[in-house]
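Quick entry, no commentary yet.
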Amino acid sequence: MRKIYLLCSVIIFLCWHSHANAQAKNSLFLEKILNKIPDSIFREVYHHPEKYRLQIIYTQINRDKHNKPSFTNYYFNVDSNLYFNPASTVKMPLSFLALQKLHQINVSGVNKFTTMLTDSSYSKQTSATSDSTSATGFPSVAQYIRKVFLISDNDAYNRLYEFLEQQYINRELHKRGYTDVNISRRFTAMNDDENRHTNEIRFLDNNGELLYQQPPAYNTDSFDYHQIIKMGKAHWNNNDSLINTPMDFTTANKISLEDLQQIEQSVLFPSSVPPNKRFDLSDEDYPFLYQYMSQYPSETNYPKYDTSVYYDSYVKNYFKNASHKIPPYIRVFNKPGWAYGFLTDISYVADFENRVEFMLSCTLYVNSDGVLNDNKYDYDSVGYPFLYTLGQSIYQYELQRKRKHKPDLSRFIIRYDQRNPNDTRKAIKDADN
């Protein structure tokens, strides 16, 4: 009887173990490319994917004779159950949803450029009634989105979160099939109850007259927290005390790498995904998003950023080298995120000179001391060099890859802003991001 029990236990374990391992998606084609990369830092991370929680999606794009794109995803260790902290990458879907919600409000005069004032109506909430970084001096959805993509501004994310409301964010993403998502937190110290409450919002016309008022909201929906997620050996809490236990991410923001890749693809190439996965955006929204997903801080007047801090490749990890410059014929449409030792980047790369395009999504964890929230991570020594090598290796592969039809990338040729050389305003060098 004991032998039968042991045999059953072994079978159950093997079935569970096989199921757990089967979760990760891997493509031999991508592994063949990655195996040829000689860089020592790259190889250290690549050959220890469990330690670095590494996931990669390389999306190959091929066009037909009518320039219609088709997409093929190649995976390395992609697993929706392998948690990573998405950090600022969640600002991307919130930017798209904010534009969508403006259309759904459908009030004359209320659009992305309309003055949007945020009031304080619950514990730890703060108001936002002016914005010195904007041309008008007032906040707007458009200005928040600019700051989200240009340097990944945290306050801008918080204001979009408050405008959208926690319930709307999650219901809308789930409705579109992005189910590996829980967006439950602002980027400021608040408890779960405070994050469920969102602020009163007012939209005003140019004369200060009220156009639309959104009351404070509270999310009554429950979240799926069945997966307990604890990481590290110790962490610093919000009171600056060292706690010698793992940090709990169970109720933190969560989204899978595949969902992030699909969300970006749905906006850059809306016709490539089913209608139910697209966001409700206008024809004017798309070029606006494309501009600020790819524009550099050095090209932007409002906000005016100090380019010694916020250089051209500041948020372009796959092209972030010592020169901080990207070739003028290349643009990267992306959203990165970095927090707690996690580094993530969701990118579409367009080379207009060589007529090359591809998408590349990656996340990894670089925190060798195992202590979280101490601002001592291996971004510079491991994370950024890895992402640069990965990006350049895929780019070089794409340069030599034969295509039946070269892409027409004119849809992504943007007329970017230009800095006013006579502008004497002080440049921003210490934004919270």
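second:
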Amino acid sequence: MEFNVFTLIFLIATLSYVVTLLWLNVRQDKALSSSFNAVPDEFSGKITLAQHQKAAEYTQAKLKVNHFEVLFSTVVLLVWTLGGGLNWLDNIWQVQNYNSLNTGAGFIISLMIIGSLIDLPFSLYRTFVLEQKFGFNKMTAATFMGDLLKALLLMLIIGLPLIYAILWLMVEMGEFWWVYVWLVLTGFSLLMLWLYPTYIAPIFNKFKPLDNLELKVKIDHLLNRTGFKSDGVFVMDGSKRSSHGNAYFTGIGKNKRIVFFDTLLEGMEDQEVEAILAHELGHFHHKHIRKHMISSFTISLLGLALLGYLINQPWFFSGLGVQTMSNHTALILFTLTLPIFSFFIAPISNALSRKHEFEADAFAAKHTHAEDLISSLVKLYRDNASTLTPDRLYSAFHDSHPSASIRIAELKRRA
């Protein structure tokens, strides 16, 4: 392979990425160890020392897995790029003498399948060892394999036509192909948001209308007060896979659903569920979803414009160990290396996300009771074994939500 200046830049960026990730993990581990024997004062009486220590041990166990994952994934990245792995796979498809579209689509799909197989041992360990050890896993081997097969079929049914469309546009649309690709990806994203609640999510989980009449009345009143319309309130069988609790909104336009995990409803009072819902409604009231979509679409446009430049630069390919310039290898090289070069702007996007969380909390405190949201959050932290004492820098890079202490303190101020 041919080394150039970009090879050196890539290696320096990769080393910086790996060292920073491992350093942040070490900081997080130290923060957990230093607070291991004392529950933070604001949670005293609500979370026991045993529950606090379980959260610390759970987080530390995940950190150990992540240590190995970071190193392993970096080795895999270097093997695919500078090690010649992409060249090897590309040559396999090139000698088949298919047209450029079939060659490119076959290359990308086969790479995705190989990547899934490489990640499979980590998925198995996280589910059946780590989550099992801490009492969260409820998934059977049959459910796990069923999910894998369903995801593979969806990738082929939905992903393959999209890959063909992108590769075709890159050939046929001339110098500004990236604008047309961006339009297709934007339309595809919006379509998936609309389709997901009704057609895709039910492939993996069962959804039933909320049957708690008293809670439903509370929710209907809240929706009327806030002027929110949805396609219904549903309960999802999250307990089929995990004991972690959660709630979310999904969909766009009139095809929106409010979804509660059955595991969340089991441990919450009605007024606490109402407060959680009010928080989610706050995101819609402040148009956080729309703002996120606009920023995401803008970033993707800029990224594709950059790729439109890089795709014609021989140093981009040779610097990453690829001998033959092609549209499909350019797409993969860009996708593989983007996380390395974009990692250090993560604190900026996370800071914006945390600002949105505070605004949604304020909305919930206004339309329900701050005390109910506080008690529901404490239960979520406790039941999900979420650490109460994360390291500040680790949190800045990894957490889209404010830390527990800061969030509770702000809600108490509003209460």
